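Ex. 9. Protein: Peptidyl-prolyl cis-trans isomerase.
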Amino acid sequence: MSSKCSPDKDQVVTLSTKFGDIKLILFNDTPIHKENFLKLVESGAYDGTIFHRVIKGFMIQGGDLSTKKTETPNISDSTITAEITNNHPHRRGAVAAARMGDQVNPERRSSNSQFYIVEKDTGANHLDGQYTVFGQVIDGFDVIDKVAEQKTAYGDRPVEEIAGTFTVEQISKEKITEEYGYKYPEVKEEK
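Predicted structure tokens for Peptidyl-prolyl cis-trans isomerase:
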């Protein structure tokens, strides 16, 4: 698995849809979610999943393995330990793990596959501290908006299916900053 990079590189995940590509990075301080997401991308498990819940002005949700037309072997939609941190607010383009509600999930464990991307321009800060934000979109905000604009039916499910394919590549952090304007937090050296 390529979840390890040299310190000067990062993985960029590309989610390709019929509307274009969404590019995102995953945070190192949510290692369980990062490794799990990369495993699903690299194994091809996510390919063919759809955005099954879309709420314009809020978020788009995907990653439900049961929405694929083919079965995914050996991967269940169980849960993984929450990694809720104050470092990552629900700003526009935040990538977070979906989960069951507090009444049945008081530990706020994350779905091991379902995720959502915040579409709202001003973010969704009312969710901060309740869900694990484990990544950030760095390109393709127009694609997120196009997905969010789709007509939906019962359960906020788009009438027309929007499937995706996922790839990952290692790119230098310098190039990510140059091309996409993403600024990495400064690493403080220990004394």
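Check your answer against this statement. Residues 9-180 form a domain with the Cyclophilin fold (CATH 2.40.100.10).
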